[in-house]
Design goal:
377 residues; mainly beta; Maltoporin, Chain A; 18-stranded antiparallel beta barrel; globular
Length: 377
Amino acid sequence: MLSAIAFSSTVHASPLVSIGDSATLHFVGNATVFSTSNVFRDEVGEVDDIVLTLTPGLQLTSGTGTSNVSYGATARYEIRKYDDRNELDTELLNLSAYGKFENARLVANASAAFFESQTNTGAANVIGALIESETTTLRLNAEYRLSPKFKFGAGISYEEKDYLTFTNAVADYDIVRLPFDLFYELTPKLDLSAGYTYSDRAVKDRTGDFVDTSYDSEVHFFNVGLRGELMPKLTGTVKAGYRVREQSGGVKDESTLGLDASLVWATTPKLSNTITLGRDFGVAGVGDATEETSIRLNSKYSISQQYFASAVLGYRMRDYLAFGREDDIIDFGLSLSYVPNEYWTISTGYTYSENDSNAVGNSYTDNRYELSASLKY
């Protein structure tokens, strides 16, 4: 989707309301029209359509100057209308909030989000329809300076996925992650880390004729890493190590190399590239355990003070552990954004999505053209 690759302007719009000395309330709105060549992302019998979305919202931010605390929240409500497939018309809620505390020794961050969706993906797909779902995420992490050279970090994250339709074909799940890291300052701009992350993944029963499809698994990630300025013009975080997956019910343990990386390469003053890499175990929409390897490149180019271009290229390989299904997922997009002033952003773009699967009925391609206008006031 274009919204995932569009350039974000760094210009700050005047607030709708100022609250005290540091809090501001903005109206944030978006209007988008897009065409899609494969609404349901089916392998055969593709259906195209034109879709209009209107998304009004409010954004609260607070915490400036010398304050140790900052926080914010955003509420958006998307109204989606299909030109031909009126039965798919829907309204979707999106809520998010964050908070941060920082002093000389401790930095703590918290965030929460809830969003509704109506879509099909390579991992969760039904023929001739779209799946409705709700996702809730909670995250808390903190980092404490033990000495001039050492820091200790710990956190907890929670993700809950609830499917509202086609519950006989997809499975709800909960994931809890507990990361622990010890950082050593190699240079003022580069840290070495040693860490361990524990994950618990609970997949629930599908409804219908399935018998006891639920299961619980644990993943252990032992890793070492680097963060900060890795090279001139290259900054970010890399964690590499070994992941071990254990599942209840007598299923054999699985292990794989583990990787989490997020890098920013400031190629030129006008061009920046963000590279993310990952290798981890996952949960498919049907509830089956997977092993996933991914790489994604997002590039942004500043043509002028008002025009910006961006491109994204992503690849994900998904292997299902219980049987021989393999998916190769590719997405590619280009966009151009125009920022006439501090309030408006106008964008247009194209996105190509493909899921190439060896399981019959699970492959698809989709071409999407989009035009959008965003307002922040």
